[in-house]
Amino acid sequence: MSAGVLPSPNIWGSPAGYEVENRGVDPAGVIEAAMAAVRPWDAAVVLDIGCGTGFHLPRFARRAATVIGVEPYPPLRHLARERVAALSRGSTGAPAASRIEAPGAGGTARIEVRGGTAQALPVPDASVDVVHARWAYFFGPGCEPGLHEISRVLRRGGAAFIIDNDATRSTFGSWFRRAHPDYDPEAVRRFWARQGWQRTELDIRWEHVTRADFETAVRLEFAPDLANQLLAEHPGTSVDYAVNLFWRTTG
Predict the structure, then answer these.
(1) Mean per-residue pLDDT for 75-80?
(2) Which alpha helices (DSSP H) does the chain contain, by range?
């Protein structure tokens, strides 16, 4: 395990549950559309920081030339590599790096999963076009070492995107405030503004197929007592969810 890595409270303990949750996040693709409006990743080198089980790697590969996932936790890294290998199985076996068919791009994209941290990214200087980090490491004050690394690896004309909760809005935002009463969203916004990042407010949904999947996601994100309260208060399989897309581009 790399130094300075803090255990994730959800995916580390339940990667299968996190897969269920990921499948229900933003089914309309609002986040990706907002990112592409800033900087498309067609034929680009994309770096996914804190890629976990690699859920987003194939999605980027549909348009990118190369996708690199960085994950510090070995069990998750193994699952991400298994996901990549499954995409290319039959021609390459189960290597750490594979070429897969990328239907949206009309060719092949290379996907690689590497061990590493946000504070010490395992990629060369000025070698990446698009950086993506979704609910991983970059939560505000304290993430300056990772921001320095992003600046190091981004090429001219590149863009970096950080996705995190917007606790000021939405039903999910109210749940987040109940779970974290000491969280100061305005302080977080000021932090990103001081760092020179832009912010785009996005409205997405948690939209799960079944009530069981919805309950899995809620119980993964919240402590048992609060999860029971939220589920008792909120019927159905979906909830409105506000997020912040923090982003900056290089000249």
Answers:
(1) 95
(2) 15-23, 30-38, 57-61, 74-88, 144-153, 170-179, 185-194, 211-221, 224-233
